[in-house]
Design a protein that fits this description.
Number of strands: 13
Oligomer: single chain
Largest sheet: 5 strands, mixed
Helix content: 40-55%
Shape: globular
CATH topology: Cytochrome p450
Distance between the termini: 40 Å
CATH class: Mainly Alpha
Structural class: alpha+beta
CATH superfamily: Cytochrome P450
Number of domains: 1
Radius of gyration: 22 Å
CATH architecture: Orthogonal Bundle
Strand content: 5-15%
């Protein structure tokens, strides 16, 4: 993981900084006439201008950053100059680590970081495996009866079960699962909510109340000593912190709990849903992964991890990363003034044909061969890079791999229909249901 150390800036000759090249007004006019979304605009800007480019949708200038060296500079080398401002999810997660900033963010991140690396991650291995086993048993029942299931809903249920067990020590029950559907509902509503904070909160007040009720009951149970059958979880770490750190009020504990719930299941569920859709298009990749080695072998695990990584290349958990320039800087030889808005776009970096040959093709071998992927650190960043890299990266990769080890050998997913578009919100997800049945694999 990158640190907050000053690693230096990109090389450039003194006094040689140039203005960032700007997309012409005809590009914006063409985009508007086509009725495209933000991703279509950004793709056209990158194609016309390059990996560091200015565009305008109003009087203000925004700099799009997709060049890997420039990405590394913004997110990892100079994070103090390119800062996060208010997060779109603040309405949902409050002052949790996802939206916190400054010294508060540093304190909160330090507390949680140890839980998601090394020894901390090993504490949750059994819980992840148990959630995967429950899903595998449910799928076996679907296969026996021929019942139609929705892959997206199944992946959400698994990922929510895994993070709920890790937070509370309890398996996810049906009642809690129903109430926590409100987390996804608020997340989906965020991009379209009113700009006024009070109006936005009012629009999702009922869902927020459901979330708060679940969080309050979980906190009260953990504080009363109810660690559940799996023992103390992340929620207990937060409650223990409150005994020594006065900033960990019930409200902040709630915010961290909801942050971990939202970030800990939505991105993984999306990745696993996209992966199943990609396997439907490229069935040979599933067979290649299973043929890489026997069940439980390191070779098979690496091959399954490559499926996950290639899915994350095409559908990164974090598809866009807004930043704000806090002071003047030189970025890849270009002059960037304080006050400039920056958009780092992993989606476009991951689909750059100069970095990734045949970028639209699903090819997990990119992550299995020494020269299969670009060497630049900023070329692959599905969870971000630098000091604000997603805390749960290793957790997400572990739970995805464990679930696939259970499901891929036993079932082939047969979709009744598939979404034709992606929906760009806080995450990228299929724009529609994913109904399917299961059959035994042919091999």
């Amino acid at each position: 993981m990158d640190t907050e150390a000053d690693l230096g800036s990109l090389p450039h000759a003194p006094g040689s900084a140039r203005p960032v090249p700007e997309a012409g007004p005809e590009l914006l006019e063409r985009w508007r006439s086509q009725g495209g979304g933000l991703i279509e605009l950004l793709a056209q800007v990158r194609e016309q201008v390059g990996g560091v480019a200015v565009f305008r949708t109003g009087p203000a200038r925004t700099v799009l950053v997709t060049d890997p060296q420039a990405v590394q500079h913004v997110l990892a080398r100079r994070p103090e100059r390119y800062v996060k401002r208010s997060h779109r999810a603040r309405l949902l997660v409050g002052d949790g680590v996802l939206s916190a900033s400054g010294e508060a963010w540093k304190r909160q991140r330090r507390l949680l970081q140890s839980q998601f690396t090394g020894t901390g991650m090993r504490r949750y291995d059994r819980r992840i495996t148990e959630a995967a086993q429950v899903t595998a048993e449910r799928w076996a029942a679907y296969a026996r009866t021929g019942q139609t299931l929705d892959i997206g809903q199944e992946m959400h249920r698994f990922a929510l079960d895994a993070i709920w067990r890790s937070l509370t020590g309890h398996p996810l029950d049906d009642g809690t699962a129903r109430e926590l559907e409100a987390v996804e509902a608020v997340g989906a509503a965020l991009p379209a909510l009113p700009a006024n904070a009070e109006d936005a909160r009012e629009a999702v007040a009922a869902d927020l109340a459901r979330i708060d009720t679940v969080a309050r009951h979980a906190i009260e149970a953990a504080r009363a000593g109810d660690a559940g059958p799996d023992g103390p979880g992340l929620l207990h770490v937060l409650i223990d912190a409150a005994t020594e750190r006065p900033e960990y009020t019930d409200r902040l504990i709630r915010d961290e709990l909801v942050t971990l719930l939202a970030a800990g299941h939505e991105t993984t569920a999306g990745t696993l849903t996209w992966l199943h859709l990609l396997l439907d298009q490229y069935p040979d990749t599933r067979e290649q992964a299973l043929a890489a080695g026997p069940e439980g072998s390191e070779q098979r695990r690496r091959a399954i991890q490559a499926l996950v990584h290639e899915t994350l290349r095409l559908y990164p958990s974090v598809w866009i990363l807004p930043r704000h320039t806090a002071e003047d800087d030189t970025l890849a030889g270009y002059s960037v003034e304080a006050g400039t808005d920056i958009l780092v776009c992993p989606w476009l970096t991951h689909r750059d044909p100069e970095l990734w040959p045949d970028p639209e093709r699903f090819d997990p071998r990119r992550f299995l061969t020494p020269d299969g992927r670009p060497a630049q650190p900023g070329a692959y960043l599905p969870f971000g890079i630098g000091p604000r890299t997603c805390l749960g990266t290793q957790f997400a990769l572990r739970e995805s791999t464990v679930l696939l080890e259970h499901l891929l050998p036993a079932h082939t997913v047969v979709f009744a229909s598939t979404p034709t578009k992606a929906k760009y919100g806080i995450t990228v997800r299929p724009d529609g249901p994913t109904p399917a049945t299961l059959r035994a694999p042919l091999t």
